[in-house]
Amino acid sequence: MIGSSRPLVTRRMLTASAAVSLLLGTLGVTLVHADTPNQAYTGCLKLGLVFNVAIGPQPSAPCPKGVVQISWNQTGPPGPAGLPGTNGKDGAPGKSAYDIWLGLGNTGTPEDFVAALEGRDGSDGETTLLRTTLEQEGANCTSGGHKIDSGRDNGAAGGVPGNDVLEAGEVETTAYVCNGSNAGMILTGHGKPTSSVGDPGNFYTDLDTGITYGPKVVTWPRDGINCVGFPHPQIDWRGCNVSAANLSAANFRFANLSAAVLEFANLSDATFDTASLPGAQMYGANLARADLQHANLSHADLATADLHGANLLLANLTGADLREANLTGAILFAVTWSNTLCPDGTNTDSNGGGSCVGHL
User: Stretch 77-82: mean pLDDT, rounded?
Assistant: First the structure.
């Protein structure tokens, strides 16, 4: 009997399991709604019938004694991935920018379209002007100098715009270019200088011999520079040859140095304000930070000279040779340029700029 009852139980369980899917709708499974997919269901199974079905791990009511409690999911495990689908058809070509332009009601050729992309010309900018005036000795310049005002010719503060005159209300910035101190002043006298003559940094010229001494430190140097033809009451160095001399910080203001030979001389920080230097030979000279404002340097040879930081305000450089000269940081306001050879080898008369600015 035991051997014959097991197949019967097995058949009844298989029959019950197979009947679950057929009886769920009849027994209220469809009346149980899940808000999210893949919910777990629990119910009671008896004689192929499922009842007390609920969402979750427990049936809606406890299963009676002798009734099997079963659970299952709303969805089964994922099936295998499907085969890739075929590519879609290419879309129609888009319109070009030119076609869109035409579609907006415009007419013309592609060239007209490109021209239409350009904006209108802007209004002319305002001219910037400079004005240079003498500055007397005072708080701005201990030894005097020049005041440089700049601003736009815009008629500000009651001025007249566009009249090429920098008026008081148009001044936006002010700078001062000051003269050097008297440290390099050249003194004159008869005979060698004594220790009581002059201040440190001064030079001294013996009018009897034409020999120049300096610069004075505590005492005067024993040996001076012999400049043939120098002895004149005024500081007249015409034709003087002081090649390679150390004249740093010397004061040559208003001096006449026509055709003087100053090749390779150390003239750094020297003052040449309003000095006359036409035809001066200054090849390779050190003129770093020298004050050359208003100086006449026409036809001077300044090739390879070091003029970095020099002040050339209103200087005359007509016919001067500046080839390979160093003008880094030099002040070049209102310089007279004419047939001048620039550091880059161009000529101001033919380089398109009329000056050496941009040709350094």
Answer: 82
Which residues contact residue 133 at a Cβ distance below 8 angstroms, ignoring those fewer than 6 apart?
Answer: 146, 147, 149
Report the pLDDT averaged over residues 11-16: 37
**Residue length of the chain:** 360
Q: Are strands 186-189 and 203-206 parallel, antiparallel or unpaired?
A: parallel
Q: What are the CA-CA distances from residue 337 to residues 128, 149, 316, 357 (Å)?
A: 20, 22, 7, 10
Distance CA 111, CA 211 (A): 78
Of 267, 262, 264, 348, nearest to 300 by C-alpha is 262
- Tens digits of per-residue pLDDT, 201-231? 667 777 777 677 766 766 777 666 555 433 3
What residues contact 115, with CB distance under 8 A and at least 6 apart? none
Give the tokens for residue 99: 């076609």
| 141: region left, alpha or beta (phi > 0 left; psi from -120 to 50 alpha) | beta
